[in-house]
Design brief:
The structure holds two protein chains of two kinds.
Chain A: H1 2-39, H2 46-66, H3 77-105, H4 110-132, E1 145-147, H5 149-156, E2 164-165, H6 166-188, H7 190-200, H8 202-207, H9 212-237, H10 242-247, H11 249-259, H12 264-282, H13 286-292, H14 310-324
Antiparallel strand pairs in A: 1-2
Helix pairs in contact in A: 1-6, 1-9, 1-11, 1-12, 1-13, 2-3, 2-4, 2-9, 3-4, 3-9, 6-7, 6-9, 7-9, 11-12, 11-14, 12-14
Chain B: H1 3-8, E1 37-38, E2 46-53, E3 62-69, E4 74-78, H2 85-92, E5 98-105, E6 108-109, H3 115-120, E7 123-126, H4 138-145, H5 154-163, H6 165-169, H7 180-192, E8 198-202, H8 210-225, E9 230-233, H9 237-243, E10 246-251, E11 254-259, H10 261-266, H11 268-274
Parallel strand pairs in B: 4-9, 4-10, 7-8, 8-9
Antiparallel strand pairs in B: 1-6, 2-3, 2-5, 5-6, 10-11
Helix pairs in contact in B: 4-7
The chains are: A mainly alpha, B alpha/beta.
Bound molecules: adenosine-5'-diphosphate and magnesium ion.
Chain lengths: 335, 277
Amino acid sequence: MDILNALVAFLNFVFIPAAAYGAQLALGALGVTLIYGILRFSNFAHGDTMAFGTAVTILVTWALQAAGISLGPLPTALLALPLGIAGTAALVLLTDRAVYRFYRVQKAAPIILVMASVGVMFLMNGLTRLLIGVDEQRFADGARFVINVRDFREMTGLQEGLALKTTQALTVIVAVIVVWALFWFLNRTKSGKAMRAYSDNEDLALLSGIDPEKVVRLTWIIAAGLATIAGVLYGLDKAFKPFNYFQILLPIFAAAIVGGLGNPLGAIAGGFVVAFSEVAITYPWLKVAGYLFPGWEPGGLLQLLGTEYKFAVSFVILIVVLLFKPTGLFRGKSV
Amino acid sequence: MSDAEKAFGKRGNRDASVVNPRPAGTVDGSRRSGPVGPGREGDPFLIGEGMSGGYGRGPDILHDCTIAVEKGQIAVIVGPNGAGKSTAMKAIFGMLDLRKGSVRLDGRDITALNPQDRVKAGMGFVPQVNNIFPSMSCEENLEMGAFIRKDDIADTMAQVYDLFPILKEKRRQAAGELSGGQRQQLAVGRALMTRPSLLMLDEPTAGVSPIVMDELFDRIIAIARGGLPILMVEQNAKQAMAIADKAYVLVQGANAHTGSGKELMNNDEVRRTFLGG
Ligand SMILES: Nc1ncnc2c1ncn2[C@@H]1O[C@H](COP(=O)(O)OP(=O)(O)O)[C@@H](O)[C@H]1O
Ligand SMILES: [Mg+2]
């Protein structure tokens, strides 16, 4: 039974957390890659867009909870999500009108848009803190577990326990639905195809009667939706803290670049590559090794890197990919 | 400036993970259309009259240039490289700001319309370069051509496939994988999808083999026979004039010679300078 115990420990400590984290990164990276493909710049404000969207969603969640409305076993935040997305979409559209459009009309070099997005990042950063404060907020309610450790042990008789949190299951399910909807939209609907056409050839899109400003607005709305969903799922799974959303920008960019910037499929693959590497490299494998090789007594925890260094993992992956496959795993723009 | 230089503003590290090096459009897509005025008595179907203007704040490229197309006819523009042929086409399509002159279509003054609205007014344009969506399939390219239409486009697509059977064969293939000749067919097909009342082609036979070129010419003539007026820029002056009802020789942004195709072919000066004797 030791192999089974090893497998359960692996699922519990590596696979499930990494899958949930990977889904969150993938949703974030999709937003980044979409803006990159259509507006031609890497949006440094994406992490803080996620934070803002989550903050709005939390506020609405609190209001719903105060009114006694809940979703039973599911987190109330799901109910608040549409309003969170609407608020975030309004903010990014306002930002586009006030900041990015100015440069777009001037045909400014996109590097200038990148710098502008850094400014927008700081602004949104402050806005989020004004809105909800700098502290950690936990807003997950409803049932905590789909499977908990004790039930699992009783059910299987294994020594090792397995827990599947509601938020983890929810993250993966919502991510699958959102990704499916996004691909359906981009490949099957007229507006989605118009977005792809614009990202292929702006002038020709114009000559086909596609209104470029409409495409840009639609892109921002979708990016705001993706950012808010990613942010809320991340916040439900861990906790909401504005600073964490600034930090998560690095693994999200790593995911988008690893997958191939501008390529939605790559963003998803990249999200999981980064998440699994990060979790696997910072996990102490001692327990799993103990089940597999009972006689072996290694000196340490078999942990490659301390969890403090988890962001270094994104950096290393980024560098390796840029060195050996600069266009990313799926063909994106060459870097 | 190369695309990369434009994207990075000629400075700093050239890392495409920060900036997408794809070139931006050249037209300001946020420009709103102005009002449509009345045309003038006795106008041809399309006329760009007395057009002067250039790119952005740069010098004038066009100098009092006039181009017109009558209903059911083919008009061609020929001239040396850099004469401003493509610029004249763009000017007629509203892709650059005219300092002087006006564009009138089918009895209406459309000088103030932006390119999107000129498409809606019935103009179709195949630019000289970048005239397809490379990452989209042939069929999607045609669908995008029909973007402004709300009705069923299946019939029009079938007509385009009849005209260019190779496109039907390759309809699921990414347009970027097509050969030069196939790309040009797709580009013309895309423009036909709006069912325009006027078709503008900028060097549709550029960079294709002589056999494919003859075939393309045949198709273009077939389109014109169907009653669609065509304004075309062509570097193969002889062939172009042979099929032209009206021909314009452009030199340095100004009209140098104008006449029917036959007249110009028999004009000694035109023969010597443009048709090689
Ligand atoms: N996008 C542009 N910006 C500035 N100048 C341009 C641009 N495109 C063309 N020109 C200039 O306009 C002139 C005419 O070019 P063009 O109309 O392309 O000539 P043709 O099509 O007859 O070969 C050339 O001197 C060219 O350098
Ligand atoms: Mg030209």
